[in-house]
Amino acid sequence: MAFQTLCKQRYLGEGEAVPFLLDGHEVLVIWPDGGQPRAFTGLCPHERQSLVNNSQFNGRTLTCTVHGWVFDGRNGEGLRPEGCALDEYPLRLTDDGQVEIDLQAQV
């Protein structure tokens, strides 16, 4: 795995979705209420619309505002419609407060 630094952990907050552009990849880090931060591709699987610019997160679910697709913020699984999912990247928090991501692998 080729982890690289994404940001400092203090820039992420529980109940928030934070967009990033890293090495040409749109990434959305979602920290669901009561869960752990997760990193997903910033593209909706429907028509590859940008979730970085076209989404809303309420602490539990992420909604693509282009066509209304809804995803579970804890695991990226499709809720509406079912049977789809966001692509997830491995993410880790380091002891020195950094957030690292591996863009070459998917969970």
Key features?
Rieske_2Fe-2S, globular, Rieske 2Fe-2S domain-containing protein, Rieske Iron-sulfur Protein, mainly beta, four-stranded antiparallel beta sheet, metal-binding, iron-sulfur, 107 residues, Rieske_2Fe-2S_sf
The first-level CATH class is given as Mainly Beta
Number of E-type strands: 11
The whole-angstrom Rg is: 13 Å
Bin the helical content: under 10%
SSE pattern? EEEEEEEEEEE
- Superfamily at the CATH H level? Rieske [2Fe-2S] iron-sulphur domain
- Count, helices: 0
Structural class by helix and strand composition: mainly beta
How many domains in all? 1
CATH third-tier fold name: Rieske Iron-sulfur Protein
Produce the secondary structure layout.
Blueprint: E1 4-8, E2 16-22, E3 25-31, E4 38-41, E5 55-57, E6 61-64, E7 70-72, E8 78-80, E9 88-89, E10 91-93, E11 98-101
Antiparallel strand pairs: 1-11, 2-3, 3-4, 4-9, 5-6, 6-7, 7-8, 10-11
Summary, kept brief:
The chain has 107 residues and is mainly β. The protein has strands at residues 4-8, 16-22, 25-31, 38-41, 55-57, 61-64, 70-72, 78-80, 88-89, 91-93, 98-101.
Structure characterization notes:
The protein is mostly beta strands. It has strands at residues 4-8, 16-22, 25-31, 38-41, 55-57, 61-64, 70-72, 78-80, 88-89, 91-93, 98-101. The chain has a single domain (4-101), classed as 3-layer Sandwich (Rieske Iron-sulfur Protein). The protein is built from no helices and eleven strands. Strand 10 and strand 11 (98-101) form a beta hairpin. The radius of gyration is 13 Å and the shape is globular. It holds the Pfam family Rieske. GO terms for molecular function: 2 iron, 2 sulfur cluster binding; metal ion binding. Keywords: 2Fe-2S, Iron, Iron-sulfur, Metal-binding.
